[in-house]
Write a structure and sequence with these properties.
Length: 464
């Protein structure tokens, strides 16, 4: 494939802004007029246009004007077969699963139904600027085959796996541990590392997993140590109580996964709303990650994730952001950032000590504040680090795969323009201006701000 290049305004991250309190700009890399050079889907050069353009004479350049170009967004936790149950009314997690989710997901055993839902799923990802997602499927082989086929057609860097459940589930939707093991193995051998597909051993959650199912996960991880492990943890209080009743030899929810040797690097627990300080510490020590799913945690009434606690620098937990669509009611990670900001502000009502002075923790409170640089780091490089794919995606470093998104800070509801006029009136973009515009995109705008999404150096979505 010939070399191609994109010229425009670029922002990515070279470090974690949470490590630079008061000076977050030090973690960002801003090119007001930059050039990104791509060959075979991979970034081969990146820098200021004036510095590097002459070394690439003859390369065809696409100019993207009046946009902010960021690495593609990374969704750490989403559900393929919930595409058609977005916005289901009235229930918290456990009754919501029974009433809305299991009946819908079961339909994905039928190839045609799965193919149509999967097409909509990927179209929505691209329209949201999401280029990578760690994805739950169902426990059915056909559904998973359809997923990996479509991911391959789109050439997107995806992580997914057969999603097993054998407790607290209707018979028609239950796996057996043997079938879970056999079908997972079939999929691993066929799809893991094929094209851009990566495989995650996926026990749905502790509340839906027998010891035998978890033992099958352990066996798979021992046989294929480079696989990911993706699950849910401590999302809802009724779920947590149920897990401790089902696994009564374990002290806490994380202990269930620890017992089967699942918790380490490449392990993601979705939600983590009710994790104890001890569990956060064990996540940190193991190099495991939590997927923070603020839109879902609000929509299903699960609770307020203690982001500032998870990010305690002494025991820093790796955190990705997940839409958890359809537990979350939006596909767009921009909405997750909006909700994440609000969750942090709500947490701080306790941490500022105004209710109970003994609860005051100003350092944790500071970490709850989701600045725009923290936010966009978290859904790009930070998400990639949490998922252990930062050698592949998440920034514009040379050698990374060329997935990126071009944001139009003027698009969206009319109020976007009012916000934007506070911070910007033409003239050259600076990092400070771009940060303000990005805060406007996440708090006032929506996925209409996603103008283009590029996959492996090719335009995959253009807003109509
Ligand atoms: N826990 C187990 N399954 C699910 C699911 O589909 N969505 C959410 N939000 N939590 C879960
Ligand atoms: Zn989920």
């Amino acid at each position: 494939m010939a070399k191609t290049a994109v010229r425009g305004t670029f922002l990515d991250f070279v470090d974690d802004p949470y490590k630079h309190v008061g000076n977050e700009e030090a973690a960002a890399r801003f090119q007001a007029d930059g050039l990104l050079v791509v060959e075979d889907g991979v970034i081969v050069d990146f820098g200021a246009y004036d510095d590097i353009a002459s070394t690439h004479s003859g390369v065809e350049i696409t100019e993207i004007r009046d946009r902010i170009i960021l690495p593609g967004f990374i969704d750490g936790h989403i559900h393929l077969p919930q595409t058609r149950v977005l916005g289901a009314y009235g229930e918290q997690l456990l009754p919501w699963l029974q009433k809305w989710v299991f009946p819908e997901e079961h339909k994905y055993s039928e190839r045609e139904y799965a193919e149509e839902g999967t097409k909509h799923f990927f179209d929505n990802l691209l329209a949201s600027g999401t280029t990578t997602a760690q994805t739950f499927t169902t426990g059915n082989l056909t559904c998973n085959e359809v997923f990996f086929e479509e991911a391959s057609r789109r050439n997107m860097r995806m992580i997914a796996g057969l999603t097993g459940i054998d407790r607290h589930v209707p018979d028609y939707f239950a796996n057996t541990p043997e079938q879970f093991y056999d079908d997972s193995r079939t999929l691993i051998e066929k799809w893991h590392g094929k094209g851009r597909n990566l495989y995650a051993i996926t026990p749905r959650f502790g509340f839906g997993a027998s010891n035998e199912l978890l033992a099958a996960c352990q066996k798979l991880k021992e046989e294929f140590p480079d696989l990911w492990i993706n699950t849910h943890i401590s999302e809802n209080p009724a779920e947590v109580h149920g897990v401790l009743a089902l696994h009564d030899d374990c002290h806490d929810y994380l202990g269930v996964y620890e017992k089967f040797g699942l918790v380490g690097p490449k392990f993601t627990g979705g939600h983590g709303v009710w994790l104890s300080n001890s569990e956060f510490r064990r996540f940190s020590e193991a190099g495991a990650s939590v997927a923070f799913c603020p839109s879902s945690n609000l929509y299903l009434g699960s609770g307020l994730f203690r982001l500032g606690r998870a990010l305690d620098p002494e025991h820093r937990v790796l955190v990705s952001y997940g839409t958890d669509m359809g537990g979350g009611n939006r596909f767009s990670l921009l909405n997750s950032l909006e909700d994440g900001y609000k969750v942090g502000m709500l947490n701080n009502t306790i941490l500022d000590g105004s209710i109970l002075p003994s609860e005051q923790d100003l350092a944790e409170s500071e970490r709850n504040k989701l600045s725009p640089l923290r936010a966009f780091y978290s859904i790009t490089k930070g998400g990639a680090e949490a998922l252990y794919i930062d050698d592949l995606v998440g920034s514009f470093d040379i050698g990374k795969e060329a997935d990126f998104v071009a944001l139009d800070w003027t698009a969206g509801p009319p109020a976007t323009a009012w916000h934007q006029s506070l911070s910007y009136s033409d003239g050259p973009l600076t990092l400070e201006t771009v940060s303000d515009l990005l805060f406007g995109v996440m708090m006032v705008g929506d996925e209409r701000a996603v103008d283009q999404t590029w996959i492996a150096g090719e335009l995959a979505y253009q807003k109509a």
